[in-house]
Amino acid sequence: MKDKTSTSKVTHGELANTIRFLSIDAVEKAKSGHPGLPMGMADVATVLFKDFLKFNPSDPGWHDRDRVILSAGQGSMLLYSLLFLSGYKDISIKDIKNFRQLKGKCAGHPEYGYLKGIETTTGPLGQGIGNAVGMALAEKIISKSFGTKISNHFTYAIASDGDLMEGISHEAASFAGHLKLNKLIVFFDDNGISIDGPVSLSNSENTVSRFKSYNWNTISINGHNPKEIARAIKIAKQSKKPSLISCKTKIGFGSPNKEGKSSSHGAPLGEDEIKLTRKKLKWDHKPFMIPKKILEEWNAVGHRSLSEYKKWKKNFNKLSLNKKNEYRRRVDGKLPKDLKKILSQFKKKFIQNPSSIATRQSSELVINAIAPKLPELVGGSADLTGSNNTRSKKMKTINATNYGGNYIYYGIREHGMAAIMNGLALHKGVIPFGGTFLIFLDYCKPSLRLAALMKQRAIYILTHDSIGLGEDGPTHQPIEQLASLRATPNVKVLRPADTIETIESWQIALENRGGPSVIALTRQKLSPVRKKYTNKNLTELGAYELKNNSKNPQVSIYASGSEVEIASELMDMLSKKKVTSRIISVPCFELFKVQNKQYKKSIFGNSKVNVSIEAGTSMGWNEICPNNLIHVSVEEFGASAPYKKLYDFYGLTASKIYKKISKKL
Ligand SMILES: Cc1ncc(C[n+]2csc(CCOP(=O)(O)OP(=O)(O)O)c2C)c(N)n1
């Protein structure tokens, strides 16, 4: 490929081939990985980095940098090569040689937090597209608050066939088109190949037409022609819509026997083929060797935005001190100092004026109280706003004509919403929360898992949290969802028992900067169980003694959420029969598990009988109350009926539980 556009002595082809051979050599050394994608997309990536990208490898966290997301994480060597070549100090040739090795920075798929310059963890196809949409939206939101001199960057994503086949990308792309996120530019690596062979085995859609119908700007180019690539990016940058640049490429470009074939996907080319490829691309250098002049040229690419960087710093310094501090606070993810006080006052007020309300309503009251003080809090729901109670009265809608609001109508796109929330959180400056029914957690789970993996603060408001939702029946009644969430590392699963625990849960979720939190809330009304004010956040203990009528109670009742109310009735019933007891409210397993031994021992107690009550599967409860256990749970998919009938049917009533206990006493 000859490049007459280059003014330097180093040609475009040489720059792109550097990516190709770094990738080929690293995959070959690791005997594992995917050389085909980096070889195919090297031209696009080279033009993007060399002529368009706003970034500064010396300050990878510069907040107004353009974001680059390799949604097709299987081609991770493309990203590692680009970061290394453009001069990110965090990555050396040693790291590249250590590709896919234990504790290496260059993991099999790009992992957020391992290496500066990686904007998000990708690998599960489609997720990166969702993240990119979230990042592009965050840019708009922040720009509205601080102006375009402070926030004015593009989000670029590289997507493969697989990314665009995955349903999540349909959801996210449709949403991006609706919101006219014009600073989002997606390169579609249209190489027509996936693992099983040609994409035509399973797909005959017209992807470009599909994106057109989503209200995207679409451009189709030869992905190996630098002029066409540059022209397309220029046009995309001017567009009033998000852009899809569909790049016809050859997977494994330059490999005489594997180019255009699925054999270049997911396996080293092999020594003989590498020799042939070196010959064909006229790359006469030893593995991992890069000629000095080419490396210098690549390093210069890393300096291309220095003047913009300096200008941004100047603009930032021109802001008032208050604005500067507020910007830093939001971007650093710190909460306003008075938030604790607001929540504590709210607790006090509610205790003075208690009422029986569903915890989803309690959550709405919390949002009402905090949203005006927390401008970075951006809520939303996947078309269940009224049911999830996620929108406070004063929230303003974010739409294509005004990004200055704080509420998002995600539509019926749970998976898209979850990935977009990750993008909003990763971008920084926004704290996303989103609602749906707890049962539809399953539609969010892959993104929620990534939020946990990436330690991102995404807050899930999951309502209708048990058979207590009643008549909607088994399809809507979450049974195994709490257990499945609790089995996922680094997720705080909060199931508050009343308004006070809901306030405390919100505080925990907001302060949890190291991962996602789920707040599971009821549809049905609950009587308050916390009646005495304390400034202390008891929910933070994970499990705590709520009531006690003896120093040595015969029965310990452990319950979460709505079942704490049943525990109270049970305690009264036991009391009438002269059986002593205590109640342990268990709003969060994860927080209890990290308490010290002594505290745990005090919670385990010495009762003759321990009972756990939760309207879901009992999996996991043995750890909370290990001995002499009776589980009161729901081990099947529920049923359609008024909820009180269901509680009775499944034995979730004080009198039915009392009968079980009396047999053990
Ligand atoms: C959600 C998900 N499903 C399956 C995979 C396994 N996988 C990795 S790459 C790939 C398909 C590769 O085809 P394509 O997207 O066209 O990428 P290319 O071959 O062009 O690299 C699959 C199925 C995955 N990473 N994520």
Descriptive terms for the model:
6-stranded parallel beta sheet, alpha/beta, single chain, about 675 residues, 25 helices, disordered N terminus, binds thiamine diphosphate, 5-stranded parallel beta sheet
What can you see in these coordinates?
This protein is an alpha/beta fold. 41% of the residues lie in helices and 13% in strands. It is built from 25 helices and 20 strands. The strands form 5 sheets. Strands 10-9-11-12-14-13 form a 6-stranded parallel beta sheet, with helices on both faces. Strand 11, helix 18 (445-454) and strand 12 form a beta-alpha-beta unit. The termini are far apart. Mean pLDDT is 96; it is low at 1-6. Thiamine diphosphate binds at residues 36-37, 72, 74-75, 123-125, 160-162, 166, 189, 191, 193-195, 251, 265.
